[in-house]
Amino acid sequence: MIRNRISDMRNVNLALKWCKAKERWINHVYDNFINIYVEKQDRYEATRITLGLSSKDRDFNFHSTICWDNLDDYDTKYWKSIEGWIEWFDENIESFQQDIQNGINIVEQYPTISSKLATYLIENLS
């Protein structure tokens, strides 16, 4: 269910794919927040809460999906980096999509982003 639902969260999904961290994040969430429950309904509810899909909490918070207390220094830096990319995609994706739809060359418009990232955005937002 996590894999299917994260695809609906475009900015997070694109950021995780860009960082090649989607599978690792899914495994982390499942191991630390979902698989701790025995009952199927409890796992279902935990998934909905973790992804911000519950009736009580409708906001996704990437930071709260990482079990920070159990991480070593390397993993802490890794997930903080991923979190930074998710925030970057959240802040910038709409303007990139609008520019792409309007036919603006984002490589020329945004010279500070790499051509690899520009190509990724064009392929995924067109």
Protein traits:
elongated, 126 residues, mainly alpha, 7 helices
Task: Give a short synopsis of this structure.
The chain has 126 residues and is mostly helical. 65% of the residues lie in helices and 0% in strands.
Note the topology.
Blueprint: H1 2-6, H2 10-18, H3 22-34, H4 40-50, H5 73-101, H6 106-109, H7 115-125
Task: Provide an overview of this structure.
This protein has 126 residues and is mainly alpha-helical. The chain contains 7 helices and no strands. The longest helix has 29 residues. It is elongated and about 50 Å long.
The N- to C-terminal Cα distance equals: 26 Å
- Overall pLDDT confidence: 89
Low-confidence stretches: none
Q: Helix/strand/pairing class, anyone?
A: mainly alpha
Question: Nearest-angstrom radius of gyration?
Answer: 16 Å
The number of helical elements comes to 7
* Strand elements, count: 0
